[in-house]
Structure formats: structure tokens, C-alpha cells
Amino acid sequence: MKIGKLCLSAVLVLAASGGIGLPMQAVQLANGKTYFVQPPRFEGATATQKTAYSWGSTYYFTLTVPENAGESLQRVMIAPEAAPSRARFDVRQTEAVGKLGDRQARLSIQDVTEDPKTRAITVTFNPPIEPGSQVRIGLYATRNPDVGGVYLYGVTAFPTGEQPYGQFLGYGRIQITDRDFFFRRGFF
Question: Which of 63, 66, 79, 139 gets the most CB atoms within 10 Å of its CB?
Fold first, then answer.
């Protein structure tokens, strides 16, 4: 059993690195789970309004699906880490823009959900984002957090398939400045 897992691991590593002269395919295990051969890259996060209590900010999260991903990107989950305050999102206003080569276009979103307990937002694409593409997801915050600080959002990508395995890509950092910062500094 251990030898079988070792051999599968070696084949996956060789295939992902291009060391085997086979066409790139998605990895699907016997249990039906699908994996990326090469997971998407999380390029970063930013917000249009970075002051506490600001209304109408859009939080952007950018991902690149590499050519050798082996599978298309079906959905992305963006989960806020525990913090003293949280942004309030209106998931109905979520948008996505894609880039393939020099072309940019709005992407079709099938569904956007927010878990009421964890506040994780899941964006599902239809059609899925093809390898060699970039996607920029815009989450509309009706209001920024009440307290300044660094807010972390965990980003997880899921390939297409009946049982996709979510690959954690990293944290998006959004720096929010306290509103009274400007008043203390004598700007107003």
C-alpha cells in the first residue's frame, strides 16, 4: 500500500513538473476526488476604500490559473479570519472579470453564497475559468470594518469535478485605517 502511494506521488510530481511526456490531465483519485495538477496562484487583494466605517468599498481578489493546471477553476472560497470587526458584504453585487491574453471580459457567475456562521463567501463560475486565464473577483462591502487594522481573508480554489479538492492558496491582506487617524494627525 505504501509503495502504491509512493509511486502515485512520484508520477504526480513528474507530471506536474513536465517530466513525463504525457498530455496534462487533471488528477482524479480512485475515491473520485479531483485535484489541480498545478494550483492557481493567488496574486493579491486590495480594497477601493481603506478607512474604517467607509461605505461602498469593493474588495478585489486576483487569481491566475496556470496553463498546466490540468483542470479548470470551478469555484473560489474567500473566508475572513477572526477579527474585532468585519466588513459587511452584499453577495448579490459580486462581480468577476477575467483576462485571457490581452482580452478582458466579465465572467459569468453561477452562484455566490455566504456561510452565516463563518462568513466565508463562495463564488461559483459557469463556465469554469480555463487554464491560462486570470480572474479578478470583486466583493462589494456595504461597509468596511469599524476598527482599523490588517484583515486577513483565506483564499481556497476548487477545480471542476464531482468531488473537487479545495487547494488553499494563501491570505489576502486588506489594511484598514482607523477613521480618527486623519483627525489625530491634523488633516481636518
Answer: 139
